[in-house]
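If your schedule permits, I should be very grateful for your opinion on a structural question. I have a record of one protein: its chain in single-letter code and its fold written as discrete structure tokens. Kindly check, if you would, that the fold set down in the tokens agrees with what the sequence suggests. I remain grateful for any guidance, and I place the record below:

***
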Amino acid sequence: MAVMQIVRFRLNTGVDEGEFNAINERFQREVAPTLPGLVRREATRSADGEWLLALRYTDEATAKRAGRGDTGDVSNALMSKIDMSTMSAGFFEIVSE
């Protein structure tokens, strides 16, 4: 069954938004298309600087493996800009469309 992964976080103190936007766009173009089971990835930002990623996967098992599968330069650069103490993530079964 298809699932949504919702990821929320803030950037590390001192990280330039433009720099993060650039690495996020690289991730969107270069990494996201290679993640097994990923159907769609959207990145959003609130007015107060909190980020939310909405990722749709074909199934939960694939989704849980996908996040751990890439350790390349682009993924590492993206993760290095995130304040991990603010990150939360969860999987939600899609029940209607």
Remarks:
- DSSP finds three helices and four strands in the chain.
